[in-house]
Amino acid sequence: MRRMFWLCLISCCATSLSTPVLSENIDVAVQVQGLVNQHGTVPYTHLVSHPQIQTVCMLQAAWAGIEPLDPLQSLQLGPITMLCGQRSINTNTNQTEQIIPIASNVRIVSTDPVSFEPLVTTSLPSQPTVDLQEFINCGTVTTQQSVSLAVTFQRSTSLALSHSVTDTQSTQLTFGWKAGDFSVGGSVTLGTSSSSGTVDTTGTQMSVQRTSSTSVSLAKGQGIAAQLEVWPVTYSQVFHTTATVDADLSPNDQYIHLADMYPSATVRTFPITGAIAITDGSGGQTMTYDDPNLTCPSGQAGVVRMSAPDTTPGRALVARPGGNP
């Protein structure tokens, strides 16, 4: 059955990767401002306030009263005086300067399709998980003994970035990946301060069990050890993509953006590199050995399964003919 993993950035469980786990993040905002500085100035027109001193005068007349004239009245004024004073006023004029604008609102506008390096398969038989059972025939006749073995293995997934970008508006990149029986969906999130993600294994069997059954012949007094070994097998692949950015520039009269300054996307494109990996358990290997170290427990008859198998490294075991029944 096809096994599906939906995977985002950063590891879920520890596993062996052929690339560094630490991510080298490019601060895109710093890089973009460097490009703007390198390009040079742009015209910027703005209002400039100029303070001016203005003299204001007014006439003042003394009041002499009203003389009745029928049907009109005559206004009687005294001496007239002119009063003057000064006040400060501001006048605004347009002024054009050459300035280096500030980049803001940095955003990813396009990405390249994800490409992959060759798949790397790493098998680690030196790190097995083992189910070991021991039996001894304490009876008087040769006997056939059935042996059932089982090993539970925890699968793991990981995705680590070695090159990424930060300080952009949050953007998510998705891609599909297939390794062996596994189909994987990768999702990389690029944000303002870090590149991050999650691993979603909903509906996926992460704990698997390898089983083995066999039958062995035990002569009188003969002891055997039977074991099932399952070891990690990691499928990993380095992936590459790029992110092309644009940014607002202010202030400027032409309302240009970074893409207007640099029409070629080459200088506005940054690399993203990572490695995706899945660790599964091997199919399992069953081995049986003659075990001369076993002795019949006192008072026991027939085939006895030893309750505490001897796991001492380097103990004397003799592979049975065929080795892997």
Largest sheet: 7 strands, mixed
Mean pLDDT: 80
| Class computed from helices, strands and strand pairing | mainly beta
Low-confidence stretches: 1-22
Task: Tell me the count of domains.
Answer: 1
What is the H-and-E element order? EEHEEEEEEEEEEEEEEEHEEEE
Overall form: rod-shaped
* Count of DSSP strands: 21
- The amount of helix comes to under 10%
**Amount of beta strand:** over 45%
Q: What is the CA-atom radius of gyration, in angstroms?
A: 43 Å
How many DSSP helices? 2
Taking the alpha carbons of the first and last residues, their distance comes to 27 Å
Can you characterise this structure?
- With 325 residues, this protein is mainly beta.
- The protein has one domain (3-38, 100-319).
- It has 2 helices and 21 strands.
- The chain has helices spanning 28-39, 258-261; strands spanning 3-8, 24-27, 42-68, 73-99, 102-111, 115-116, 120-123, 129-137, 143-154, 156-166, 171-179, 182-190, 195-196, 199-200, 207-218, 223-230, 232-250, 269-281, 285-290, 303-305, 318-319.
- Strands 2, 5, 6, 7, 10, 17 and 18 form a 7-stranded mixed beta sheet that branches.
- A hairpin with a 2-residue loop joins β11 and β12 (182-190).
- It starts with a strand and ends in a 6-residue tail after the last strand.
- Residues 1-22 have low confidence and may be disordered.
